[in-house]
Backbone:
């Protein structure tokens, strides 16, 4: 019994020593990032020198050059490009809208949704019909013909994690236009998917159903959305004027930018860390997803700087075209599958540069419990939970393609939808230390996955 | 054995039911706050209509009126004022400084420290000596005579919780001027206590040691501090020009504003919830501590709105003069002691309106473990830890005076020292949802303390 007890204590003690050495190593990573991080400086160049990075624009190509250079500086053994066919939707000028009533008009803050068609030259004017949700749409389907539908579905404040409010509301943006066109609507204006207090309109991808006419679709700022709703509540029957020159050009090419750091034991097994280089066009794509790109580059830089030697090959992937069609993610996954590359883990950062809260992990219950067992090592740096709400769009295809375990950094979500796809997603809204804490937690997780496997 | 087991299961089950009912009640509080909170609107009025609230200024008195009204609207049974002697330090105009070298000068972003004396009219110019820390001060004490000491002690980035960096650096602001004057320095400039990337200087309280001459003391922005350090590193020997009209007038009066909500079972036992009404003067005191005031008022409003009936009497206290001398806190505590009022708990919010992370509790290990046992109820709303780093300055005197258990909301600290005591502590830096989450966690904690006692 004494021997058993001794063995048990030895086990406890060795576990403790191991966790102590991990804890010290992660502290080393944190000190390195807090003192020498290049994440914030990299983000400044990406956002302030290059700016908005809508797929197919010159800025996307400038961003690819930037990414190559930044990955080299961070210490990648090898940096290369992966060519992808990407969509080429253009805004074509300033989107406009106004509410018209009693021979008067008031301008509205609007922005065309991604993939929207244009209005006819000079815009269109039609009676507005306010629709609160899809149930009401079906009930009033006979009233829609010739009208502009204003979807006023709220971004539910009661969800503590705002991602759930987004998941709840986003069908109105993504699918609402075609569902209204089915019943003869000639245009759609959708309440922005946001919890902000300002009036910035928030764009984002919309997908037409080819069975129905393609109608122009725009998002409207929350203050203006409330104004429209107030008019309807007072039994006013306004018309809307909408105008956009948005249209889709033939596909063009874009590139995933990949920086590789060769593994010492398993060079043919990969760990992916990534974000997406493209952004919507009204601002600088600082939180979405400049932050994820510089997070990922910083993981490489910091782990190298503290002298870490990875067992598996680590690939930093700056994905092209996440926003419009996810073509960068598809391309990466299909090439990985074609080459039969073993991917043990793929981690993404696409929730902004806010203070970290958790990781979301896609894997088996056993794998998820491995991540949970690492929480005591991450708590100090802000990650206190492992969620299982899926990982992001850029790593998700790797589940089916190569059976990868996937993960996403989930920073605090309270401010994310203030800026998401809107004109205020600028560098100044990113806090340096919050950004750095994201990189610290990501680097720590990659270290643990690389060291212990999954 | 069967009966014991049954009893055990019944106990588990009843515990579960109880925690379920608490969980549902806290969800009700959260929904109420997310949907109808007055915290953000109240903060807008306090910051935008009234503005900076330096003790003794007319704005402090306007803020007291505002507080009375806001507490009445929130549903206090009774609102009253508690008169205090408060210090009356005035800035007396714009503080100025410049670095002078080779017959050239460059202006510096500075702000006089609270309680500083003025320079002579027109300012003073003297050779600058850069001192990195108190150890170096002692080593070079013979070099200080007739000079202006520039304390360049860094705000250590390696502390994840920035409060520790502040505790570490703040002696240079609070005590540094007299320690330099002891050796003949004629003025002091201190590196701002901040982790920001901008150049706003950060003021804050300084305390003279009456044994030494009182020398004027200012804080300098971080970018300018780095410039000064770079000059010294290049063996330049600049002089500094500093000018301030700061001076102290005789004490004046201020008021703690108290809103009371009578308890049904223990009306003579009190739970305090508070923040401080005063602020430093360069901006609007939005995070410090407008947020704490509106948090506290919202606790009352929300608990009333969901139909809660407190067992103990809840007092919302908007303290006067936290920043200069803590006279509001002393007054409240000494009156509580004089009246022998039993205070079971006193909770403060003075860490800003950022996303909540934890509460810090001052109490016995048993009491702290009671708070820890409530964490599963708070996790969803962002509070995942109970710290024991002490509670804030406004409730702390209640420990000695009446043996109260104390607590402080500890929101995420990454951004706090970007704004603390600086010109950018404005309403626009407060996020509505983050502010509301603070109020939700505070209301939940007050509900639990009131219901279960301590």
Residues:
């Amino acid at each position: 019994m004494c021997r058993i007890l001794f063995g048990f204590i030895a086990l406890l003690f060795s576990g403790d020593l191991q966790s102590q050495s991990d804890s010290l190593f992660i502290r080393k990573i944190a000190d390195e990032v807090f003192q020498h991080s290049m994440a914030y400086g990299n983000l400044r160049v990406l956002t302030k020198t290059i700016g908005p990075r809508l797929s197919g624009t010159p800025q996307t190509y400038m961003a690819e050059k930037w990414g190559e250079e930044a990955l080299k500086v961070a210490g990648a053994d090898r940096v290369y490009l992966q060519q992808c066919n990407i969509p080429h939707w253009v805004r074509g000028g300033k989107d406009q809208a106004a509410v018209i009533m009693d021979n008067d008009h008031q301008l509205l803050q609007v922005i065309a949704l991604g993939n929207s068609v244009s209005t006819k030259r000079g815009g269109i004017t039609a009676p507005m019909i306010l629709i609160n949700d899809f149930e009401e749409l079906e009930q009033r389907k006979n009233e829609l013909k010739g009208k502009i539908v204003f979807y006023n579905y709220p971004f539910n404040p009661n969800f503590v994690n705002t991602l759930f409010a987004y998941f709840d509301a986003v069908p109105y943006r993504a699918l609402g236009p075609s569902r209204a066109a089915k019943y003869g609507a000639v245009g759609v204006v959708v309440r922005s998917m946001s919890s902000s207090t300002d009036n910035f309109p928030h764009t984002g991808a919309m997908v037409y159903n080819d069975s129905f006419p393609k109608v122009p679709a725009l998002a409207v700022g929350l203050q203006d959305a409330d104004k429209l709703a107030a008019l309807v509540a007072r039994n006013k029957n306004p018309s809307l004027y909408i105008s956009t020159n948005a249209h889709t050009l033939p596909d063009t090419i874009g590139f995933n930018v990949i920086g590789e750091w060769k593994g010492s034991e398993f060079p043919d097994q990969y760990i992916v860390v990534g974000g997406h280089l493209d952004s919507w066009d009204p601002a600088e794509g600082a939180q979405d997803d400049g932050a994820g790109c510089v997070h990922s580059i910083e993981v490489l830089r910091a782990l190298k700087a503290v002298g870490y030697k990875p067992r598996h090959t680590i690939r930093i992937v700056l994905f092209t075209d996440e926003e419009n069609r996810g073509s960068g993610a598809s391309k990466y996954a299909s090439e990985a599958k074609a080459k039969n590359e073993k991917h043990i883990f793929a981690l993404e950062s696409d929730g902004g540069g806010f203070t970290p809260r958790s990781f979301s992990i896609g894997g088996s219950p056993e794998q998820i419990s491995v991540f949970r067992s690492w929480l005591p090592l991450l708590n100090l740096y802000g990650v206190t939970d492992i969620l299982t709400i899926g990982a992001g769009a850029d790593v998700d295809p790797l589940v089916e393609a190569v059976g990868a375990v996937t993960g996403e950094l989930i920073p605090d979500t309270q401010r994310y939808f203030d800026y998401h796809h809107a004109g205020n997603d600028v560098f100044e809204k990113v806090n340096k230390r919050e950004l750095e804490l994201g990189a610290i937690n990501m680097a720590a997780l990659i270290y643990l996955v690389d060291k212990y496997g999954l």
In short: Chain A touches chain B through 27 residues (CB under 8 Å). Residues 27-85+251-452 of chain A form a domain with the Aminopeptidase fold (CATH 3.40.630.10).
